[in-house]
């Protein structure tokens, strides 16, 4: 799906979202009931660089400083974080964390944050963008991953065929929407016909304030992360009972 | 192998995660949560014919630091590279959520100490590990927002790579030693993807100039530098206790400014001595050769964060 | 991976009052041992999970030697091994009983 198609489907009434530097998107859109939302994005499967992170984070901070509680929708087609010596030297971890932090901060102080993944997102870039929003949606073309199977094969020293075979029995490591959704990463996958995107977005903006991280519950319910939530709860329970 | 208890000045780098916790906290104050005897282990390693660990490489609990109640979590970098996985991640998520929930109650703690030692997400459990990192980031920020500082201590064998590098930069304060390394994509992965001319991972000096503790503290990716012994980390953890920035719009505006300026000033540099030279440090090439005392003296002249 | 249990009888029970201890790390060529004082006086139980296949008889010999030397009666040893050599295994076992004896 192209960004234009996605924007037209989400905001048929009106939008003023334009391309910014480094393959970013920025602007505002109007929902059917005249509610304004802020829109930010990455296009073209662009690897997440310090420049993009600073560009997007700066815009999020402007929105925060405006004093409104406008929802922020992130339209995402990135890649992995950019893999260069220069970016690592400059502290890419700080730039990725900075972007994640301002997105989380916006959510914490009352901006409902929604990620809509319409392309790729991987590894650290996935964490710093899509997974930093309160609610992540996938649409046609979404391909989230931690690492592609050939690279996992190289690191784990397992033959690719063996990995592919194992992937059939567990969603725990394979790329793609179904596996990531099973672990709780993706809240909803929207259908191809796109006719009800505005209603679906409206429903997310109104039904839940996004303040509690419910992804481990979702992962437990969907069976993609069977033990995480239980363990986190056991720790919380034990914490107040430990001798001190 | 020399048993840990007879080494005189235990080094952070050489020690196990458990030895680091014991040396960091006040004597006999560590109370582990979901310890080895609870056998909370990875359900996924069996699929890969790999032996599990009783603690899944994540040791969590509470204890005291200079008499103050703290929560602590330590990754064992020698087990599966100290990786974030379903169980190890959930233990840390649970601890951070508990700390946040305990604010204002009898079980409140004054800070969280994160002894990160990690290659990032455990690829055998890639999706669960990725989710764990994301949940940890949110939980760290919630904890900071609730007024409890989260202090990262970096100096282990595995460094703080991948999601671990991002988690590190989400903490209130980062303490690092010369051996500590912070990065997102590891040099080997960059070399595999982009070629040795982009990043020669066998050039150890280069790897350390790019990712190592001295570069990180000079550039501002770490806040405090310590000598590599456990006692040094302990002293610094005590000292920085509650002197750290809140997680607020104001703090993030300052961060935006700091990181934007770094790109403007040094974005065209190709190696760190170029940065130090441009920043006005004398003898930029010597920075990696001088001893820790000389480096600390240089740091105090320069002042912290650039 | 291979899993098996080795049982032995010690001359005496292990001194000290420590209930449990853990030593070692599941690193390459290394192992972790969880010691728990859960068995009857002279009984020794060793549960082994190891990445190296086909070495059960070597393990049995090392454990027999260790039980003779340390007499760790009353203790269950649970081991996760990532290809440690017999001398490393012996060292960790001795370290484990030493820690358990000294644990309050």
Automatic annotation (TrEMBL), chain A:
One Pfam family matching this protein: MdcE
InterPro entries named in the record: ClpP/crotonase-like_dom_sf
SUPFAM superfamilies from the UniProt entry: ClpP/crotonase
Domain of life: Bacteria
Matches recorded under Gene3D superfamilies: 2-enoyl-CoA Hydratase, Chain A, domain 1
Stated name of the protein: Biotin-independent malonate decarboxylase subunit gamma
Automatic annotation (TrEMBL), chain B:
Domain of life from the UniProt record: Bacteria
Domain Acetyl-coenzyme A carboxylase carboxyl transferase subunit beta: 17-203
InterPro entries: AcCoA_carboxyl_beta, ClpP/crotonase-like_dom_sf, Malonate_beta
Pfam families: Carboxyl_trans
The name this protein goes by in its record: Biotin-independent malonate decarboxylase subunit beta
Automatic annotation (TrEMBL), chain C:
One of the Pfam families matching this protein, by short name: ACP
Entry's localization field: Cytoplasm
Keyword Cytoplasm assigned: yes
Entry superkingdom: Bacteria
Sorted UniProt keywords: Cytoplasm, Phosphoprotein
Principal localisation: cytoplasm
NCBIfam families membership: malonate_delta (TIGR03130)
Matching HAMAP family: Malonate_deCO2ase_dsu
Protein's name according to its UniProt entry: Malonate decarboxylase acyl carrier protein
Phylogenetic lineage: Bacteria, Pseudomonadati, Pseudomonadota, Alphaproteobacteria, Acetobacterales
